[in-house]
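If you are new to this repository, start here. Below is one unmodified record pulled from the training split, so you can see the exact layout before writing a loader.
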Amino acid sequence: MFKRISLLLILFTVFTWQLLIYFIDTSLLDRQQLSENIYHDCAKIWSSRGFYENKQEQNSLTALNRAFLLGAKGAEIDFYYDVSSDRFIVSHDRPKTNKQGVLIYKEKEGRILTLEHVFSEVASSQYFWLDYKNLDRLDEQQTQSAIKRLLSITEKNSFIESVYIEGSNPLILSKYTDAGFNTILGIHPLPSSNWLASLSVSVYKLAYYFNNITALALPYGDLNNPVYSEGAADALSSIPLFLFHVPLDKPLVQSLLDNQGVKVLLVGRDKSVNYFDMNSCHQ
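And here is the target side for that same chain:
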């Protein structure tokens, strides 16, 4: 009797789960028509932290401007919101704390580089994928202060429609979408070799569906064991995608460029690669 009840519960759970996924997939197809503000340019390959010659140049104005001169339409950069100074500091590394409890950030080319300075130094035709390093470490009051400040500097420089804010907490990230920003939920599904890969993709899809978020970002993974496998591509086909850590394989890159669901690509990992002449403009 116990085994029979257990089997019925398992079957009911599986059926309910599949029904939920079907409902979400159907709803996402309808929502797809509302994605007018999402990046649609055929130049999909952006730079990661600019085009740099060494680690010290990452996220610097020199690296960013070099990438744009080489043809990158956009750039992914890392930043923190500094609560005490009400500034957005461009940096990948976590700040250190001195003896007085003050956060010390790494300088870029002899100065602390802020988002406001970056926006004022580049053309308004450029796009930015902003990797928000401390998004989920801010409380509600700090989050609202950050949103107010970010609105101020993006509206001042006419950049609000050109920035995509990435974070890993869908609840907090949704607050930025509500404020008028394009947002990207950073996810890390399991690679295709893992038997739970499909389930992990579905869980992230639920997080996207039940929160007000613009797009998803995920790593491509290894060529022989991709995270963005055929199964993941099919499951996420109705969601705008930003892919990073794409392997240095030009046939693969071109196939991703031709995929309409993939909006932006970051090619390579921890190195600058000039693939900016590749695009989907032939379509």
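Two things worth knowing about this chain: Residues 42-267 form a domain with the TIM Barrel fold (CATH 3.20.20.190). Residues 2-31 form the longest helix (30 residues).
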